[in-house]
Amino acid sequence: MIVSRIAKILVFTVLMVFVAVKASAEESSESMFDWEPLMEAITQVESEGNAKAQNGNCCGAMQIKPILVEDCNLILRSRGSKKKYTLKDRFNVKKSREMFVLIMSKYNPTNDIERAIRIWNGGIRYTVKGTQKYYNKVMAAYKS
């Protein structure tokens, strides 16, 4: 009985350590890739750097839709984070970029630049044809 209880505690402890290590590895892989040049190119294409830009329900320097803020909050919640973004955060360049990195960590874990551009424009179910003009604009800004 005591051995069984000790075994359960040991298994639980090992599982908790595994979860903590996995979460730590995910966080460090997010912060290791430098998205800054691409985010700058996207910002130029989307709003020419205007943090107060609005176009329909797209807002801020990176023209973020409410559904993206929702998705970020779902990702955060699934990772056990208490952090939460608001619609107002779309007007904050730093927080907008945090959301970009968070979305990429979930839907573009290989840090593929082309995929990142197309996801940002067309969502996770983008089509190459539907995002081609945007991709070309962002790549031109990215290369300059």
Write up what this structure looks like.
This protein is an all-alpha fold. The chain folds into 2 domains: about 1-30; about 35-144, Lysozyme (Orthogonal Bundle), CATH 1.10.530. It contains 6 helices and 2 strands, in the order H-H-E-E-H-H-H-H. It has helices spanning about 1-30, 35-45, 65-80, 95-105, 115-120, 130-144, and strands spanning about 55, 60. It has a two-stranded antiparallel ribbon with strand order 1-2. Helix 1 (about 1-30) packs across helix 4 (about 95-105), helix 3 (about 65-80) packs across helix 4 (about 95-105) and helix 5 crosses helix 6. It is globular.
Weakly predicted, low-confidence segments: 15-21, 23-29
Strand order of the largest sheet: 1-2
Query: In the CATH classification, which architecture of the largest domain applies?
Result: Orthogonal Bundle
When the domains are counted, the total is: 2
Shape: globular
Helix content: 55-70%
Main beta sheet: 2 strands, antiparallel
Indicate the mean pLDDT.
Answer: 88
- Total DSSP helices: 6
The counted number of beta strands is 2
For the termini, the CA-CA separation is 69 Å
Radius of gyration: 19 Å
CATH level-3 fold name of the largest domain: Lysozyme
Strand content: under 5%
Order of helix and strand elements from N to C terminus: HHEEHHHH
